[in-house]
Design brief:
The protein contains one helix and seven strands; from the N terminus they run αβββββββ. With about 120 residues, it is of the alpha+beta class. A four-stranded antiparallel β-sheet has the order 4-3-6-7, with no helix packed on it. A three-stranded antiparallel β-sheet has the order 1-2-5, with no helix packed on it. The longest helix has 18 residues, at about 5-20. The N and C termini lie far apart (about 60 Å).
């Protein structure tokens, strides 16, 4: 059995490796995805993460800042650095953020947030 201090160090190394491969600041170089409204749908686009362990992204949105409809870990999956959100109700402001995921299913922190008013 490993001593507790070794287990803690091992867990810290794993956490550092995950942050390096799915780091929050790496989700976009500009800090937030871009959002464009077209025919009632919102097209999000962001700069891809260049880490070799990144396998995809998750998109989160909601009507309050940092209050998303999707629970953590259950965002809308995207294998590309863009995603189109459809079916949003009008006359509301929506907030969007993106995370990166790796092959182990781990997820980065949220990107900076972007919002868009749906008429």
């Amino acid at each position: 059995m490993l001593p507790m201090s070794r287990v803690v160090r091992l867990l810290l190394l794993v956490a550092v490796a995950l942050v390096a491969s799915c780091g929050r600041s790496a989700v976009t170089s500009s800090g937030a995805p871009s959002a464009v409204l077209s025919n009632g749908a919102v097209r999000l686009q962001w700069n891809p993460v260049t880490g070799q362990n990144v396998t995809g992204y998750r998109v989160y949105y909601g009507t309050g800042s940092r209050s998303y409809l999707q629970p953590w870990g259950q965002g809308l999956d995207s294998s590309a650095s863009s995603f189109t959100v459809t079916g949003l109700a009008g006359s509301r402001r929506y907030f969007f953020a993106v995370t990166a995921t790796n092959a182990q299913g781990r997820e980065s922190g949220f990107s900076d947030e972007v919002f868009l008013d749906i008429p």
